[in-house]
Sequence to fold (669 residues):
Amino acid sequence: MIEKIHALWPEITLFAAACVVMVVGLSRNVQVRRLCVPVCFIALVAAGVLAWFTTPMSAAAMAHLPQYGKTLAAFVGALLLLLLVGTPDREYEDDVARGRAAFEPIRGTRGEFYAFYLFSITGLMLCAGADDLIWLFLALELTSLPTYIMVAISTGRNRSMEAGVKYFFLGALGAATFLFGFALIYGATGSTKYTAIAEALQAQYQAGPLNAIAVAGVVLAVLGIGFKIAAVPMHFYTADVYQGASAPVSAMLAFVPKAAGFFALLGLLSCVGWFRATEPNTSLPEPIHEVLWFMAVLTMTVGNVLAVMQNSVKRILAYSSIAHSGYMLVGLIAGPGLQKDSFTHNGLAAVLFYLLVYGVSNIGAFAVLACLERRGRDGQMEEADDIADLRGLCSRRPLLGWIMVISSLGLLGLPPLLGFWGKMPLFTAGVSSGDYLLVVILGLNSAIAAFYYLRLVGVTLLEAPDAPGRGVPVQPGPFPTRVLAGVASVAGIIMLSFIPLTNQAQRAGIYNRDPIIKRSAEPAQPAVPKPEV
Amino acid sequence: MTPTMIPTLANTDIASYLLILILIGGAISFAVINLGASYLLGPRRQGQTKGITYESGMNPVGTARKRFNVRFYLIAMVFLVFDIEIIFLYPWAVTFSNVDHTMTDALTWLGRILFFILTTIVAYVYGMRKGVFKFD
Fold:
C-alpha cells in the first residue's frame, strides 16, 4: 500500500494546494484573496513536473498511461485555469471593490471554486493512475462532484443553478449505472484489481464465451462512463449544462470529465482485452464490441447533426464535444493493433493524443466566448452566446476573431492544423483494424462537422459587423488572462509543437498483453469450483 | 497465456443472481403498481378542503414560506463532518490496539488516520473562516 504513495505525489500536491486555496479564498483582505489563482497555477505546474517523473506501473496493461495522463491533466489544467480566472463572485467582487458591499466570507465562493477545480483535476489524475475498480469509482466521482457545484456557482443566474441540478441528477444516474456494472464485474471475476480481472476474463475467454455476468457488467460500466464522456445514450444533459454554465466552466466540462471517462474506459477495456477468434484482426469480445460500435456511430452522428441545427455557440460546441467523443470511441474500438511500435496503427495512442488535441483546441473557442460580453435583458452583463454576437468579429476585434477562426478550423481538423494530426491516427488505426464501415462513418461525420465549424468561421471572418445601434453591442470582458489562454491555444494549434508528443502518446498507448487467440478446438475448461459462501 | 484458476470469490453462476433480479423486479413493480393503482383507484375530488395542508388534521396557521436562518444548514453540515469522522475513527481505534507494532505497516496504519484527521481539520478551519461558528 505504501508504495502507491510514491506514484501519488502530483495528486498530493494538488490536494494540499486545494486545502490552502479553500482557506485563502475566504480572507477579508482582497490582496490575499487574489492569491488563489497563483497558488493554483503553481500547484498545477508543480504537479505536472512531478507527474512527468512518475514511475511507470510495470504490472499494468498500459504501463505508461499514468505518466501521460497526469501530465496531460496538469498541462491542460493550467491552460483552463487561465480561462477560469475571474469566474467566481464576479458581481459580488465588483460591489465590494466599489464599496457598495462589505466582504462577508459566507457570501463569497472564490475559495470553493478554485479548490473544487483542483479537486476535479486531482480526480482526473487518479483516474489515469487507477488500478482497481474501487479506486476508479472514487476517482471518477472526485472528478465529477466538484464540477456539479462549479456549474451551479459559475454565474449568479438561475440558469446556472438549473444546469447544476440537471447535471447532478443525471450524473448520479450515470454513477449508479457504472457502479452496478463494477459490482457485476466483481461478481464475475472475484476481484476489483485490474490485473486479477484481466486474468479471470482471459481465462474465461479461452475456455468459452465470456460469462454473461461479466459482459453485462462491462456493458453497464461502459454505458455509465458514457455519461462522463457525453456519449449517446447518456448525452442529453450536455447542451443545457454547457449553455447554463459560464463559458470557462463549459470549457472545463468539455475536457476534465471527458478525459477522466476515457482513462476509465481505457483501464476497463484493457482488462477485457482486444482479442477475437478470427485472425488477423484483434478486437474486443463480441457483445462489448457491438455496444461500443453502435455507441460510437450514434454519438458521432447525433452530435454532429444536432450541432448543425443550433444558433447558440455554446450549444454548437456542446454538441461538437459529443461528436468528438464519438471520434475517440473509434480509437477504442480499433484497439492497440498488432504492431506494438506503430503510432498510426494504435487506436489507444490515437485516443490519448486526441485528448490533448481536443483539450487544447477547445480552449480557444470557449476563450472567445468568455472574453466577449453584452448587456443581458435584466441589465446585468452576460457572456456572448448567440452566433450573431460573433458577426464580423475579425474586423471589430481582430485578435478574438482570429482565435475563433483558427480554433474552429483546428477542431474541424483542417490539414495543416493540429486537429488534423489528431484525427489522422484515428482513421489509420480504424483502417488497420479492418473496420472500414466505421471509418467511412467517421469520414462522413467529419464532413457534417465542417458545416457548423465553417459557419462559425464564416460569421466571424466574412460577414460585416452590425451597424452601430443595431443588435446588442458586444464588448470585450476585463480578463486579460482569458485572452492569453486563447492565444496559447491558437499557438498550439498553429505551431504543431505538440507533434513530438505523439511519441509520448504512443508509449502511453502500448498495450502489454498479447492478443489471445481462442482455441475453439480445445475442450471447455473443467468446471470451476463452486465458491463457498 | 495458460488458463489460470479463477479466484474463488468469483460467482459466475447466473442462477445465484436470481435474488438481485427479483429485487430489481420488486423495486420496479413497487413504483409502477403504486403509481398505477393510485391513478386507477384514487378518487379525484378538488376543493378547498382537499387543498389544505393536512386534509383531516389541524388547520394550518400562517404561511409556510417563512425565512429562517441559513446557519441552521451550516451547523448541520459541520455536524455531519465530525459525525462522519467519529464513524471512521471508532472502528479504527478498536482495531488499532490489535495491530502488531513491530509490523512494518504499523506506521502506515497510524499515518492513514492522521491524514484523515488532517482533512477534517482543514474542514474545521474552512468552516471557521467561513464564519459558521459565529453567532450574532
